[in-house]
Amino acid sequence: AQSVTQLDSHVSVSEGTPVLLRCNYSSSYSPSLFWYVQHPNKGLQLLLKYTSAATLVKGINGFEAEFKKSETSFHLTKPSAHMSDAAEYFCVVSSNDYKLSFGAGTTVTVRA
Amino acid sequence: NAGVTQTPKFQVLKTGQSMTLQCAQDMNHEYMSWYRQDPGMGLRLIHYSVGAGITDQGEVPNGYNVSRSTTEDFPLRLLSAAPSQTSVYFCASSGLEYEQYFGPGTRLTVT
Lengths: 112, 111
Hints:
The complex is a heterodimer of chains A (about 110) and B (about 110).
Chain A: E1 2-6, E2 10-14, E3 19-21, E4 23-27, E5 32-38, E6 44-50, E7 56-58, E8 64-68, E9 73-78, E10 87-94, E11 100-102, E12 106-111
Parallel strand pairs in A: 2-12
Antiparallel strand pairs in A: 1-4, 3-9, 5-6, 5-10, 7-8, 8-9, 10-11, 10-12
Chain B: E1 4-7, E2 10-13, E3 19-25, E4 32-37, E5 43-51, E6 54-57, E7 64-66, E8 76-78, E9 87-94, E10 100-102, E11 106-110
Parallel strand pairs in B: 2-11
Antiparallel strand pairs in B: 1-3, 3-8, 4-5, 4-9, 5-6, 7-8, 9-10, 9-11
């Protein structure tokens, strides 16, 4: 069994300040973990993925995430938010098969 | 390389009507899947396929049928539309490390 909990349904930041989106997971196996971004009325785009290589994963658009097995966490960060980062973000887990489990999503608002 | 394409983008149906949502991918991926997205619930898996001729049910399969006659295409059929099927539908195909590539979605309203 696997599941994902995104700890914040909504995060609001000022442009130029750091962004932190929190994700905890559970998995019976060594998981693969992903973050996806969805801009309004668009499909989902893969930001980054963890697949048992380096625990610090760098993705597109300056995002990165750290896999912490002891804390069962995979938090997403960005040092400096941009207006274009306003979107919904999904943390996703796979127990190394093709069935993914999605978190409920975190909506990010960026204030000018 | 178009990735994953879906048609139509928007559709309005009356209760009881049937229709097919089309999905195609040009990445030669074996695994394809259909999700529905409802507010506050993330994405939920409807049906999936691990290759041509092989399909299986996901988390919320009732009211939907699929078939997979080719690697490229994976249509989703609504047999008798109900208002509870109003949603945004996404098709996806998977790469070798289980990451999924999503189409742009179909926004369906059932009245």
